[in-house]
Amino acid sequence: MKQTDIHSNFDFFPKENGEDILQKTAECAFTRLSFTFTKEHIESVIKAASSEGASDNDRYVCACILKNAQTASEGKFPICQDTGIANIFGWKKKGFKSDGDEYESLSEGAKKIYDKKKLRFSTSVPKNFYEEFDPKNNMPAQVAIFSEKASLAPTPGFVKNLPEKSMGMIFCAKGGGSSNKTSFIQGTKAFLTKERFTALMKEQISKFGTSACPPYTIGIVAGGLSPEQNLLTLKLATMGAYDDMTHEPNENAFRDRELEEIAMKIAEESGYGSQFGGKAFALSAVVIRLPRHGASCPISFGVSCSAHRNLKAFVTESGFYLEKTVQNPSEIEGFSEIVQFAENANPNECRIISTSEGISSVLSQLKGAKPGERILLSGKILVARDAAHARWKKTLDETGKLPEYASKYPICYAGPARTPEGSVIGSFGPTTAGRMDVYAEPLMKNGAALVTLAKGNRSREWTDSCKKFGAFYLGTPGGIAALIASKYILSQEIIDYEELGMEAVRLVEVKDLPCFVVTNDNGEDFYENLKK
């Protein structure tokens, strides 16, 4: 690798003889974005933790995110356990030609790295309308290639500035948590007043909740010649494609700086900052206005989570260029001060919980715990999420019983990345709690799920069940999967449904895993309290 003067923010990789340059670009891009962040992203986290009025929770969670970035940068544990669906967008400049099938080359590059780097296979492929299977390669990738002047979505500014006979690209690993927070409204011109649109932003931003691992990059798009143009523009906006778009309304598409400031203020005042009480709910906001049909006004909202895995690249006749990332985050100014805060956190302020004596003992140890109280959890826990819960429910319906192990331990909702050579487990972080809420009554009534661990706010149904059955829901900070795998997990074994891959049921031993009480056995809920 050598440095060139074409763009100071990119590293250059010269083309080698016989090399499929697009495949190689994809391989290098997904390797880099899975383990490292751009300097701008690291600095934005430091800024959020250092800003005036930042709460202890803001600083603590941001410190954990920074420590996670440092751990991941070593190249063993990916930034997030949900290493995501491979998304690749390309814009071909005039005269650009490739040697083969562009889609096949880019997909093959992604496929190779997801296997080589032990990234998680998250894709489910349908057998029929109702049944699915794990293809065990994370394919298919989502690949879209346009001409430079394609009008389906605005062309990113960096692409416009590239030389002829080149192709600009953005690579993205998009996880389910942030994708699931996308909302779409088929509105009308009635929304296009400052008062009405501000009210809509307040409503929709509050719906993001915390399950997609804030602090977020928020994207908002109003207008679009079709719903498809609106939603593609939103996706690209959350990936940083339009960070250099002008704020002046003299183009077909433009950013609205005033509304971006309002969106950031709404996020700050939501109370959801840094996942459990604080102001750092968003690192930035991008609000884009597009042309529209006079009879409609599509509007969309979306986020990129704190594991902001997006990378720009471009290919020329002589080689390819990748956006620079930080190989050693600890060298960035302000990093050490924020991390030191987490290192100095007083463990005496935490309730120490052990699972060694069984679930009844855990419930006794949690008795009297209030929402927001910090926990350090040690001992064995079950790890199970969507597919396992569906199997449990089917077994319960058919036999009237759950597997014996289901009622013995706290249940953590997670699907770890594959295990690197010589490690106990792959990157491990909580998944969205709310997806399991439909199982509250049948599980708790049968002695299971009386203590659960995950991320994000839950439904009234779950909260009511906690009160009814004396259960607790504990939150675990999201966005720190590399840190959890390397520091807090001692062992793991698959005990059921091995064929489910990352969704298999595991028995995992943890030591001093950081948690906090979200819902207690009286039905008091941390996030509900924030709304009062």
Write up what this structure looks like.
This protein is an alpha/beta fold. The protein contains 16 helices and 20 strands. The strands form 4 sheets. Strands 1-13-12-6-2-5 form a 6-stranded mixed β-sheet. Strands 7-11-8-10-9 form a 5-stranded mixed β-sheet, with helices on both faces. Helix 11 links the parallel strand 14 (351-354) and strand 15. Helix 1 (21-35) runs parallel beside helix 4 (102-116), helix 3 (56-72) packs across helix 15 (481-487) and helix 7 packs across helix 9. The longest helix has 17 residues, at 56-72. The model is unreliable at 1-5 (pLDDT under 50).
Number of helices: 16
Strand-residue proportion:
15-25%
Distance between the termini: 55 Å
Major β-sheet annotation: 6 strands, mixed
**Helical percentage:** 25-40%
Low-confidence stretches: 1-5
- Category from helices, strands and their pairing: alpha/beta
- The gyration radius over C-alpha positions equals 23 Å
Morphology call: globular
Summed over residues and divided by their number, the pLDDT gives a mean of 93
The tally of beta strands, per DSSP, is: 20
Strand order of the largest sheet: 1-13-12-6-2-5
